[in-house]
Amino acid sequence: MKALQFSATGDLAALHVVDLPTPVPGAGQVLVRIKAAGLNPSDVKNVLGRFPYTTLPRVPGRDFAGVVEQGPAQLLGQEVWGTGKELGFFADGSHAQYVVLSAQGVARKPRQLSFAQAASLGVPYTTAWDALERSGVARGTRLLVIGGGAVASA
How far apart are CA 133 and CA 130, in angstroms? Predict the structure, then answer.
């Protein structure tokens, strides 16, 4: 499979398109054929070396949308999407033709979303949700959102 990979950090020039074996899912895992992958600031910072816990060589990418090609029968052929805390840091991520992850790490993609739309939601929406949870915002509370980026929009 084709994948974007880096073997050193510190410079985006470390990214190279490489040929890798298609990963094989284990028990409780799925193989997802990637149709779209998000690009987040953390993906760029990862290549630049801002996350010293990243294991190398590594395929970056946390957010994805695609189709399950191998795994539990109820998921085969399903259009799915997701994001991963470990994807791109400790496990190869979504900037490849395929990704292997826990079958519990995918959700059925809403039909009204394109693959590209679904792949762009993971990190921005989980970041916005986390910020709201930590802020203590509750019903009846007013909240001012400053900014117009992906997290602010979420």
Answer: 5
Burial class (CB in 10 A: 0-12, 13-18, 19+), 148: exposed
Q: What number of other Cβ atoms are within 10 A of residue 33's Cβ?
A: 14
Residue pLDDT, tens place only, 87-97 = 888 999 999 99
Answer whether 100's CB lies under 8 Å from 64's CB: no
Structure token digits, residue 19? 């040929």
Q: Can you give the pLDDT at residue 97? A: 98
Other CB atoms closer than 10 Å to residue 32's CB: what's the count? Answer: 30
CA proximity to 96, closest of 34, 15, 6, 23: 34
How would you classify the pairing of strands 64-70 and 98-102?
unpaired
